[in-house]
Amino acid sequence: MADADVSLLQRFFEENPEYHLAIDGTAPGPNAAQEEFESLPPNGWRFDKKWLLRFADAEGRMVGMADLLENLFVDGVWHIGLFVIATRLHGTGRAWYDALEAWLRAQGCTWVRLGVVAGNARAERFWEKCGYREVRQRLAVPMGRKHNDVRVMVKPLAGGSLREYLSAVARDRPDAR
């Protein structure tokens, strides 16, 4: 997506508020899309590029989105910051995710990393079924009006063991602070 797509993303968020309600505790505000475009990881986090991808149906209507960070912490590790599929299409998210994963592989991604809110059972099951494994938890992470515990999960796209991943990304070691 480009800056010109802010209004399209805002409309998508407003038509599909479930993520924001569950995670932030409120419906998406009037600047939710602009904030998504502008949000970056904390200072000191190395990454090469932020991507906002739009998923469209056969008629070109927006039906989902993903927020990604390329080469987070080390080369080859990509982070999914947000993956939202339109409410009316819940249950079809795996097909959209599989397309995203194929795209990530084509970009040279070797590991995918994400955080899922503990207790968001539907999302936890989804990511586990997609092959993600928890490497650690972060407690009381501020998100909107809430503080959520977050399960940091990873998946290899080019082989490799969790030991290799944790050797490369010290922040995700279970004993890291």
What does this structure look like?
With 177 residues, the chain is an alpha+beta fold. It has a single domain (44-171), classed as Aminopeptidase (3-Layer(aba) Sandwich), CATH 3.40.630.30. It is 30% helix and 31% strand. The chain has helices at residues 6-15, 18-23, 32-38, 93-106, 121-129, 162-168; strands at 49-56, 62-70, 77-85, 111-117, 133-143, 146-156. A 6-stranded mixed beta sheet has the order 1-2-3-4-6-5, sandwiched between helices. Strand 3 (77-85), helix 4 (93-106) and strand 4 form a beta-alpha-beta unit. Helix 1 packs across helix 3 (32-38). The longest helix is centred in the middle third of the chain and has 14 residues, at 93-106. It is globular.
Number of helices: 6
Which regions contain 5 or more consecutive residues with pLDDT less than 50?
none
Strand arrangement within the widest β-sheet reads 1-2-3-4-6-5
What's the average pLDDT?
95
Name the CATH superfamily assignment.
Gcn5-related N-acetyltransferase (GNAT)
CATH topology: Aminopeptidase
- Determine Rg (CA atoms, Å): 16 Å
Q: What CATH architecture do you see?
A: 3-Layer(aba) Sandwich
CATH class: Alpha Beta
